[in-house]
TrEMBL record:
Similarity comment: family membership: Belongs to the binding-protein-dependent transport system permease family.
Entry's localization field: Cell membrane
InterPro entries in UniProt: AA_ABC_transptr_permease_3TM, ArtM/GltK/GlnP/TcyL/YhdX-like, MetI-like, MetI-like_sf
Protein name, as recorded: Amino acid ABC transporter permease
Length: 226
């Protein structure tokens, strides 16, 4: 059985299809993380400055993406809103939109907490030196806040990457979808699901391990440069 399962894996373009699905997963994940990081930094900084009503809006936005599971959000943006608004987006774009908004909501709360953890004396010293509010955030608060936020950033990023496994529900041809297609095409072989999902699990581990290594490297460079 195992021998025939490996023959199936190596036959045709199955390996190429799996790697292509992995590429789709990586593109969606990294694009969502980059966009979510940029939006999250801006929202997190504004959250520490804004008045009561603006903070309430941020809080509602955060709670929507924190409480509602990702699957209903995907269905809402892919099936319901396009039908009601007459706007049709490709599944990959919808995936990036949902994951970026989710990442931004979670990361903005992390940034808010990180900025507020910077000692008050540093903000007061920056004001005394004549720096504007923008300059204080640009050169003092956000750099130190980002350093504090690196570990939560890794955890949130790995959550995004792992959660992309549900994208087969909206017909995104990611690595999970490709693996399922190969399994269904060879359903007579009872070992092929173990082999395919084992390879997919290894690929997810490799992607997350590389992300963790790169983030730790950047964190180390920042600490050594302080």
């Amino acid at each position: 059985m195992w021998q025939s399962a490996f023959k199936i894996l190596l036959s045709g373009n199955n390996i190429t299809r799996i790697l292509g699905g992995l590429e789709t997963t990586i593109v969606i994940s990294l694009t969502s993380i980059v966009l979510g990081t940029l939006i999250g930094i801006v929202l997190g900084a504004l959250w520490t400055l804004s008045g009561k009503w603006v903070k309430l809006v941020f809080k509602i936005y955060l709670e929507i993406f924190r409480i509602i599971p990702t699957i209903p959000l995907l269905f809402l943006f892919y099936y319901i809103l396009p039908r009601d608004l007459g706007v049709n987006l490709p599944a990959v774009q919808v995936s990036i939109l949902v994951f970026a908004l989710w990442f931004a909501a979670e990361f903005s709360d992390i940034i808010r907490g990180s900025i507020q953890s910077v000692p008050r004396q540093q903000r007061e010293s920056a004001f005394a030196l004549g720096l504007s509010t923008f300059q204080i955030f640009r050169y003092v608060l956000i750099p130190q806040g980002l350093l504090t936020a690196i570990s939560p950033f890794i955890n949130l990023s790995t959550r995004i990457i792992k959660t992309t496994s549900i994208l087969l529900l909206i017909s995104v041809t990611d690595v999970i979808t490709v693996g399922q297609q190969i399994i269904e095409a060879n359903s007579q072989n009872t070992v092929i699901p173990i082999l395919i999902y084992g390879i997919i699990a290894l690929l997810y581990w490799l992607v997350n391990a590389v992300l963790g290594y790169l983030t730790d490297y950047v964190k180390g460079k920042q600490i050594n440069g302080r």
